[in-house]
Amino acid sequence: MGAPTRDSPVCEVRPNESASPKALAPFFFGLTGFAQRLFAVLASVFFLLVVWFHLGKTYNIPELIWYENGVFFQISSGFSITLAVGYLWLVTYVVDARCTSIPLEQEVASGKTQAIRSGWLIRWLVPESPYAADPHWSMLTWYLSVTWQPLIFLLAVPVLFDPLNRWPFAIGMALAFLVTRLAVTGLHRLQHHLSQPNQPFPRVAQGLVGDGRWLRALATTVFVGLLVAYAVLSLTVPNHSPPIASLCIMFAFLGGITGAVWFYFPRGGWLVLGAVFGWVVFCNSWPYKLRFPGLEYGKSDRVRLAAYEEPEVIVDENTPLGKQEKQRVIAMYRELAAKLQEGYLGSAVSVSPLNDNASYDSVYRSYRELLEKIRHQEEFWLEAGWVNALRQARGAGSEKPRMAVVAISGGANRSALWAALVLHRLEEELRGPAPAGTAESLFPRHIRVICGASGGMVGASHFVATLDAKGHSNGFDPASIVADHLSPICNHLVFREIPFLFLPVQSYTHDRGQALEDALAETTPNLDLTFAGLCKGEVEGWRPSLIFSPMLVEDGRRLLVSNLQLPYLTASKGRFLIDHGAPPAGISGTGSPGGSVGKPHFYTGQRVLRQNDVEPHLYQDRYSQSAVELFRLFPRAQEHFKLKTAARMNASFPYISPAVDLPTVPGRRVVDAGYYDNFGVNVAAMWIFRHREWINNNTSGIVLIQIRDSASNSLRRHLVKPEEVTTPGLWERLGTGTQWLTGPPAGAASAWGAITSFRNDEQMQILNDLFNQPTKKVEAGRDFFTTVVFERPGEVGMNWYLSEDNKNEILHGFEEKYQVGDNLYWSPDKNPNPNPEALRLLKQWWKNGGA
């Protein structure tokens, strides 16, 4: 950084510029000038919007500043924000004085510094040196008086709105003022010492004394201090330091670098910053830079996705493409057969060998029969293992059991806590014939599948991983699973990932996603279990099976992660009048000589059924392949892939957790399951549908339990929202005037949630029609299939951090009335809570089925 110099000015004064400073000049000054102030303006505006207008309340961002759970964290917020904003405006001043604030330099040069008024706080924080007069001091104090001082006042005012809870923030600001005053006083004394004759460091003295050179030294010293602190923290990466402090260090550090670029390259700053951006792009151009633990990323371990395409119905075996497709299907058959022969759901599966010389029709049929055998094996286990084990545990003869499938919505820590609370409450209320006076419960045995998105599956993972054969016989406290998972994420982002953005390395470990994994396992050590470690409980029937379904960025497909083999959930098939087409990606060669021009005779898609075809469903063509299975692509990973990694993978919310590559060719990045379905109903409904006949014949009923992170039943069931204004006022009319601009993004935002919600409800209707509509086999009025929804009441921000008030609000989610002091959250008369009645109705349905 450098100080203003009048000897060789960079910019010239424009004729229309006034010779007196303007209060808004430091904030806006042309395109280039605004770019030079960008970090300071963005940081200031961001913090003001958070403390005044609760910016990011939906994501609990204000809690990061007020941090009502910890005095130290809130003090650090006030301290770091005050110093970071002050340093950013100091850097901006240095650049301004050199390039864009020539009127201020003219004031100094002409000796009119008396006309420049400074605020009292700045005059106390940055007093003029008693040892050496410097005309630039007045210019700096005025500059900070119209930037830093009003911003600090505005940031401090919200403390008065809740002084009993926010006083630590003011203490932090006061400490920042004290540190600033001590630093300036120390600088004055250093100036005085170096200005003495015969001092031993003349070059240092020349750089610090006279004509504003001290300013360059001050900015550089602070930057070096930031650099040292950043380097030390990057080596240690503290997990639980305040996230706002980490973000302020990042803001200040990047602001210092940007300021140095504009100071030393005032005309070529854009080019330098562009070159830096290009370097970052280059450093991150290697695939697989971020990696999932438990998966192998060596070149020989990377899986070619083309090898796992669904096979074509018909191919011409006399063509190179046809022969290649046949060998591919044979390889898939043998790989899957080998895994089944090793054992699936507690027993080995008998598989017939496949002859290399068999016709493609025979190979294709054998492969499809093998896929059907997987589903039949799962149903055989459900009958021989799950039902019998449940009957023995209940001591209930030959009664058919109730079955439960759970679908959970996402929402970071709030949905994790809500999901764990609902499952635990159901475990207590639907205990079954467990011994009185114990914590044993048979309800977890009735749950066969749990699926969902994001944080909801984190809560489900905690619940499932801590089960034993008697439920949670040692007790289970849902509140214990929620901790500050945000601080490790922020600290690894700032001190681990940002440095690696600038390093040309092919990979590195311990990114912010892995920091989240470690934080989850710190709360519940059982999340360190591998999927192989979960198998025993699933086979014995007392541990529900988890199905994680994160989405792949490149093609929008889901990645199914489960101990269950789920090929029947990966593709949609049926009769399809489809023309000849091009071969799948990754298949090369030429078509048959007699094919149509430009269309290789690779497959026909629609097979003409013969009269002796007894299983035409085996020859259904695929409409689409909507998912892939993780342990089908990487069968060896099941022994090493941990539950915490799957939970993080499923909760990779944008920017909070990184989108990480799978070791596939081509690469595929994994993001939050909520992109595809934030409620988990889609996978749950498909699983029920695929097993519909077995469920109908072997259970006394099935309930789909929906655990939702927010209220949505009313919104889906009624055309007009209660809060919608039918008679528009001035504000609504102004909003109408901008609809030409806001329409497309507002429509996209509405579609994201509405499409999945309405699609899921349509799937509910299909299941209801299948199980409950009277037919020759189904009696009228049967209540065999039903669904129940437990919605988290109240308003809690979505984040990996929850305050104590947030936790208590969620933990009271089954009470009819919740009030703290004068604050009434809900009651039968105000915002009635539907959960108590939903629980009562579920218990009634459950009891009617003999469970």
Task: Explain what this protein looks like in three dimensions.
The protein has 851 residues and is α/β, with parallel strands linked by helices. 49% of the residues lie in helices and 8% in strands. The protein is built from 30 helices and 16 strands. The strands form 6 sheets. A 5-stranded parallel β-sheet has the order 4-3-2-13-14, with helices on both faces. α14 (320-342) packs parallel to α15 and α16 (412-429) packs across α18. The longest helix has 35 residues, at 360-394. The radius of gyration is 33 Å and the shape is globular.
- Shape assignment: globular
- Largest pleated sheet: 5 strands, parallel
How many helices? The count is: 30
Strand order of the largest sheet: 4-3-2-13-14
The total count of strands amounts to 16
Strand content: 5-15%
Query: What's the helical proportion of residues?
Result: 40-55%
> How many angstroms does the end-to-end distance come to?
74 Å
Q: What is the rounded Rg?
A: 33 Å
Mean of all residue-level pLDDT scores: 80
Low-confidence blocks of residues: 1-21, 111-116, 580-614
What structural class do the secondary elements suggest? alpha/beta
